[in-house]
Amino acid sequence: MPARRSAPPRDWDRVSQSVADAYFPHELTVPAGRREPRLTLQTLDLGPVLIGYVGWGADVQVECDYPSAYEVNMPLTGHLMSRGRHGIVTSVNGQASVFRADTPSLISHWDATCTVLGVKFDRDWLDREAERILELEPVRATAVLPEQLGVDGGLGRDWRRLVGGLAGQLHEPQFFADQPVVREQLAGAVAAGFLLASCPDPGTGPVPRPRAVGRVLDAIRDDPARAWTAADMASLAGTSVRRMQEGFREWAGFSPTEHLVGVRLQRARADIEGDTGLSVSEVAARWGFSSASRFAAAYRRRYGCSPSETRR
Fold first, then answer.
1. What is this structure's pTM?
2. In this structure, what DSSP letter does residue 36 have?
3. 263: DSSP letter
4. pLDDT attached to residue 2
5. What torsion do the CA atoms of 116, 97, 103, 155 make, to the nearest 10 degrees?
């Protein structure tokens, strides 16, 4: 689905319905005498993951059950105050409030200056990703997710940068609409980054041995155009994402992602040197690169020239 940019509704009922259509049904409370809304609402739909900006332009209270989905809200400005299992959770820039699927929640104060960068995950899909990425017994992510996540350092900051980079594509209404492989990979990367940043390492699962690492290497070489995610690779290796990464460092000397990018660059170069009739952008999308500019930068690092120079 394309990104969505809402027209600025003038009344609160229409504002509430616009946000409900994009995210969740909810009960919105606006203190009496407050000013008319100034809605900020833009979304990018990656299938099981929805990324967007939301701001009300006035102090509001929001009650919601988050049916069949998880929601993560990162304030860019202002603050967000919600009721958690163990008391009040207040998030500002550098923090994220995490709301569990099918769990009643109350955002008791979403202030007028607060615009959030939000990420919505389909519940069943994220539960499956959690089992694969964290190598937990079948369990809903509800059981392991925190109520608040720091996103100003470490893995949280890395994840915030990934989501922010994707949010930069909100102005492109057809962002990879015809490239489901790329969109699937991006959704998987957002989920993996979030889960690895949110959940402590349980320290379980084996570090894959050379034979298991070899299975992943061979599978990537055989089908580099597949929408590979970290969870897919870990499942093939028979371990968690963290353990797989350790095994690759120990036995291969590089990461699974570095291997995937290298194989894709080789295939892309063959397309560019051959008479395929594809543009550089089409070659980049064919081999799973999220943008032509990122493909060109990776290509130059690998081969010392741009794709266009190779073609000439």
1. 0.75
2. P
3. H
4. 41
5. 110
